[in-house]
Amino acid sequence: MCMDAASMQWTADFEAHKPKPTNTVPGITYMLAGATQRSDTNPYDKTSPAISVGPHWMILWPFDPKATGLPTKHRATGAYIMWAGTPYAHVHIMGHP
Q1: What's the pLDDT at 76?
Q2: Closest CA to 79 of 61, 95, 96, 60
Q3: What is the pLDDT along the chain (97 residues), one digit of tens a residue?
Q4: How is the chain split into domains, by residue range?
Q5: Which residue, 4, 43, 44, 75, has fewest beta-carbon neighbours within 10 Å?
Q6: Burial class (CB in 10 A: 0-12, 13-18, 19+), 28
Q7: What is d(CA 58, CA 55) in angstroms, rounded to the nearest whole number?
Q8: Which residues of 66-95 are buried (b: 16+ CB within 10 A; e: fewer)?
Q9: Could you give the C-alpha distances from 61 to 20, 39, 48, 53, in angstroms and in order?
Q10: DSSP states of 57-71
Q11: What whole-number distance in Å separates Cα of residue 11 and Cα of residue 54?
């Protein structure tokens, strides 16, 4: 995983269960190996079936699906907003660079 300073702050806030991220600029993260997540809607879900996510970029900033027109459902290609409606909503851009 490659991430800038804003992404590191966002991630630290998320892991500490802070009410919202404290980064003041968008963070950029790239995950070449992809990841496994549990939910596209609940950031702290630990019980739902695993969702495999391929290589992707993330823009860690509170995006609103209504303002952006981006979908909120997991996609194998293209972009979508994960955890929409939460302070930890962010954009996933699927695919290799």
Answers
A1: 84
A2: 95
A3: 899 999 999 999 999 999 999 999 999 999 998 888 899 899 999 999 998 888 999 999 999 999 999 999 888 889 999 999 999 999 999 986 6
A4: 2-15+34-94
A5: 44
A6: middle
A7: 10
A8: eeeebebeeeeeebbbbbbeeebbbbbbbe
A9: 10, 18, 25, 19
A10: EEEES---HHHH---
A11: 19
> How far is Cα 4 from Cα 45, in angstroms, rounded to an integer?
25
* Residues in Cβ contact with 71 at an 8 Å cutoff, skipping those fewer than 6 apart: 65, 80, 81
Six-digit token string for 88: 């930890």
Q: Measured between alpha carbons, how far is 75 from 53 in angstroms, rounded to an integer?
A: 9
Gap between the Cα atoms of 35 and 3, Å rounded: 14
3-class secondary structure for 24-37?
CCCEEEEECCCEEE
Interatomic CA distance for residues 32 and 41, integer angstroms:
23
Query: pTM for the complete prediction?
Result: 0.88
